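ARCHIVE CARD
Drawer: 12
Card no.: 0347
Subject: one protein chain, sequence and derived structure
Cross-reference: see card 0346
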Amino acid sequence: MANIILKFFSPAIVAMSRLRYLGKFSLIVSFFVIPIVILVYFWLPNINSAIDLAKRESIGIEYIAQVSKMLRNVQQHRGATNAFLSGDVSYKQIILDREKDIAKNIIDIDNIDAGIGLELLLTKEWQKVKDEWDLLNIDVANFSGTEKVDESFFRHTVLTGQILFFMREVSETSGLFLDPNIDSSHLAEILVSSLPSIGEYLGQSRATGMRVVGQGTITSTEKRFFINAINSTNNHIRELKKGIEIVVNKNPSIKDQLEYFLSENMEGINTFIAYVDNKIIKSTSNSIKGDEYWSTSTGAVDASFKLQDSIHPVFKFLLQERVNSLSYQKNVILLAVILAFALAAYFYIGLYISVKRIVIVLRETAKKMVNREFVELVELDIKDELAEVANSFNIVASTLVRSNQELENMETGLRETNIDLEKKVSERTRELENIKNNLEFLVKEKTVELENRLKDLEKFQQLTVGRELRMIELKKELEECSKHR
């Protein structure tokens, strides 16, 4: 098993064994840094894209809010024009007032388009809406008589359809229909589809009802129109309530606010629906009155737009919360990454310095050991594997210190023995010198004695030789005396 593990890790072991610690640390850190950099590289554009989308959606809501005001005035202009062409000249002032309001709406939308419309690339589409209104405004000024009611209704409805289409273009271009959050996507559907559709069906019902008031009778075609309009309105109301339910379930903090707006404005819409159902659809005669019908229908239409106006800030609030949340996530993650890199670099450098310090201490201690200097045990405030290396080094150092101490003791003993020997040799040398000196003195004495003896011998010899010579001479003299006798 151990062999299998070693074989598996052998490439890493070979690589690490050939790198210095700086290279080892850099290699290990790179295995963590590179994936983080790659993740941040691919994640950051996504979160930036989500933030940009939310900001574009907020721009789209602002744009749609201004266009809704124009749609509201055009719808009321249609109803008042129908009433005027049907014979009620009292609505002429309402027509003029709405034309002034629409002119102001166009200026406001032009200002928004100059600021943010270029970003959404909707200037050409907006110009088409303005051109259609200009043509309608010119033609309506020349309309007169009941024969022009249908044409006025048709031309106004074409314009409102174009405005509704333009609102959808704004929502698509700004990304409202691409919203990834279920609550925001339903709010977008409510603002761009459900509520405008409710307002348009109610507006058409108002215009058609004002024509019925002028006619004094209602046709079966008109009655079928009211039935379809009310049914379509109710369908969109159900979609509206379902969408708001989803939104408040996802965002409980705005539940009370949205439910209050819904209940407050639905009262006017329901009142008008009940009015049409009782006075037109179920009635066998035309019993509706012009001012009453105008007031009730306009209240319903205004209620649908008030509900839109109430939802706009809520939607922008949710988008701003999302931007804040995404920005917070982005900042936290970037801060965490930066902090992680900073801490990694900090501890990387600290680890390298720690290892380098240990290596330096061990190297310097080893040099002292080689030079047979006094060596203290290595004391390092560490608890990792290098502490085991230091402990092993201390064991070796202790052994060497003991060996050096023993050698020093032996050297000291040898030096002392040498000193003793030197002392003994010196003493012996002195003794020998004394003996030598004594011998020399004795030799000198003996030499003098011998010399004296030699002198005595020489004298004795001389005396002996002289006596022998004298005896010889005496002998010769005796012989000669003997002969003469």
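Annotation on reverse: The chain has a mean pLDDT of 82. The chain has ten helices and no strands.
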